[in-house]
Amino acid sequence: MSEQPAPADTARQQLDPAAADAVRAYAARTRANADQFAAVMEDIATNGLPSVEECTPWEELREQHLARLAAQRPAVA
User: Fold this and answer.
1) What is the sign of the dihedral through the CA atoms of 67, 71, 76 and 77?
2) Which of 6, 19, 39, 40 could potentially form a cystine with 15 if both were Cys, beta carbons 3.0 to 4.6 Å apart?
């Protein structure tokens, strides 16, 4: 995306109400994810890194995520 603002003489295309609601919902989810990430970073800055025993290995996290993705995707015959 360009860092420059759009020229003032061009009209913006309006979204239909359903599309506008979908964009607002996406923005809210993105904002919530950013807030959660920022909270984790602030906790690490304040308290340091958690101990290894408190952490989940990345391999387990990967498998959990892949299982969630597979569950969302319809089976192919």
Assistant:
1) positive
2) 19
**Residue type at 48 in one-letter notation:** G
Question: Which residue reads 């003489």 in tokens?
Answer: 9
pLDDT, tens only, 11-61:
899 999 999 999 999 999 999 999 999 999 999 999 999 999 999 999 999
Task: Record the pTM.
Answer: 0.57
Residue pair 12/6 in contact (Cβ under 8 Å)? The answer is yes
The stretches of the chain forming alpha helices (DSSP H) are 17-47, 58-72
